[in-house]
From TrEMBL:
InterPro entries: Beta-lactam/transpept-like (IPR012338), Peniciliin-bd_prot_C_sf (IPR015956), Peptidase_S11 (IPR018044), Peptidase_S11_C (IPR012907), Peptidase_S11_C_sf (IPR037167), Peptidase_S11_N (IPR001967), TAT_signal (IPR006311). It comes from Acetobacter fallax. Residues 1-16 form the signal peptide. Removes C-terminal D-alanyl residues from sugar-peptide cell wall precursors. This is serine-type D-Ala-D-Ala carboxypeptidase. It is an enzyme of class 3 (hydrolase). Belongs to the peptidase S11 family.
Length: 452
């Protein structure tokens, strides 16, 4: 048995008829560029202020797949929601003071408790003196009274209330310190490697930090994991204790985004995390280290528009589309169709269709019996010059060879990829079942006789 590698599309052949990289129900033989191979043999926050903040390092450009883009943000990360593709990044893994962007993690822990049934929206939580005395942006909770969880969530996310965060933290975990332990544990589980929390509010503290990429990560998890609570981020106004306050996220107020959060500290400058969905695409953006709330609003609006204007959603392979007819050894059928289990779509810069390279790798021939949906190999999609790393796919275990079957031949080397390439690997599977030949058929096959 040897590994068969097939270059399905490359260069200008990538898109056909606008239907996607690989269009049609099956690929014609002429569409496959095959490398040389041997013949097949039997297998073996805090308060948001309007005063300016001097933030160093804000003048450098951000990196994008289409080249550098200027931004006044010191830290930035913009990601496509469905694919996780990075559209723009600037010091995205550098630890930064997150200010009230911290409240997104606080909200995530609260939402987890709600979904687990350990907390209810109408549950009343008491206001401690510590919560009442908390400075910075406030919901203005009254000392000694109890407040419904839903109102506390609104106060935390719409009014950016530090006092609301303390009431929630104490009500859930007994103390803010115990609640922070839940936040850090959750950050670890979500893969937020450049985040550590010292409090539930984002109040400046030594050892309290997040990265712009981690801010995008928690935002995407909030949207994906708890869609039933995401609407809290898009509410434009909330009135509590006879005090009405508007959503501090100007993009939400203008209808340009449907969430998430803003923040400000002297050390971190003015920050923003926003998400917007347009024409079937959702983008998540994290910016921080800007000089004023006005700059934050304008830069957020500009970069959000840039993210939608310069990229498009392209279907690379459709679910059930036959990529190849793989030879089958000792099967009632001579071949089995190779397919993907679901549509494979990517966000690409406009005009990048001709740069997509798609190749198929699988162990050939496939040993019968073959079950429908059985893993056969992987599809490798390479986008040159795109920030990102390879997405690993576990290797497909070769079948146990029968007596007299040659051992597996190692796979030929993959086409070279530069360090800037984005390589995505997608599992492929059998599109149909193939039964094993009966005893007589196996004998005939080994003697080189035709079975059919």
């Amino acid at each position: 048995m040897q590994t068969r590698r097939i270059l399905l599309v490359s260069g200008t052949a990538a898109f056909a008829g606008g239907a996607g990289v690989l269009s049609g129900a099956a690929l014609p033989e002429t569409a496959l560029a095959r490398p040389r191979h041997h013949a097949h043999k039997a297998p073996a926050e805090n308060p948001d202020e309007t005063t300016g903040t001097d933030v160093p390092g804000a003048s450098a450009p951000a990196m994008t797949p289409i080249g550098p883009v200027d931004t006044v943000a010191r830290w930035a990360c913009i990601m496509d929601f469905s694919s996780g593709m990075v559209l723009l990044e600037k010091a995205a893994d550098e630890r930064m003071p997150p200010s009230s962007l911290t409240k997104m993690m606080t909200a995530y822990v609260v939402f987890a408790m709600l979904q687990a049934g350990r907390l209810k929206l109408d549950q009343m939580l008491p206001v401690s003196e510590r919560a009442w005395r908390m400075q910075g942006s406030k919901m203005f909770v009254p000392l000694g009274e109890s407040i419904a969880v839903q109102e506390l969530i609104q106060g935390m996310l719409i009014q950016s209330g530090n006092d609301a965060c303390i009431v929630l933290a104490e009500g859930i975990a007994g103390s803010e310190e115990q609640f922070v332990a839940l936040m850090n544990d959750t950050a670890t589980k979500l893969g937020m490697t450049n985040s550590h929390f010292m409090n539930a509010t984002g109040w400046p503290a030594e050892g309290h930090y997040m990265s712009a990429r981690d801010v995008c990560t928690i935002a995407m998890h909030l949207i994906r994991d708890y869609p039933q609570y995401y609407h809290f981020f898009s509410e434009t106004e909330f009135k509590f204790n006879k005090i009405s306050q508007g959503n501090r996220n100007v993009l939400v107020d203008k209808g340009l985004a449907d969430g998430l959060k803003t923040g400000h500290t002297d050390a971190g400058g003015f920050g923003l995390c926003a998400s917007s969905q347009r024409e079937g695409r959702r983008v998540v953006m994290a910016l921080n280290g800007m000089a004023s709330s006005n700059v934050r609003a304008h830069e957020g609006e500009r970069l959000l528009a840039w993210s939608f204007a310069n990229f498009e959603l392209a279907t690379i392979v459709k679910k059930g589309q036959v990529l190849e007819q793989a030879p089958v050894w000792m099967g009632e059928a001579a071949t089995v169709p190779v397919v993907v289990a679901q549509d494979v779509s990517l966000v690409l810069p406009h005009g990048w269709q001709s740069k997509v390279r798609v190749s198929l790798d699988y162990a050939s021939p496939v040993l019968a019996p073959v079950a429908a949906g059985q893993a056969l190999g992987h599809l490798t999609i390479t986008l040159p010059g795109t920030p990102g790393a390879a997405v690993p796919t576990p290797p497909v275990a070769p079948p146990t060879p029968e007596a007299g079957v040659p051992p597996v031949v190692p796979a030929p080397p993959a086409p070279p990829a530069t360090s800037a390439d984005r390589v995505i690997m997608v599992s492929v599977q059998a599109g149909a079942a193939v039964t094993k030949l009966g005893f007589g058929g196996r004998i005939a096959s080994r003697l080189g006789m035709r079975h059919h």
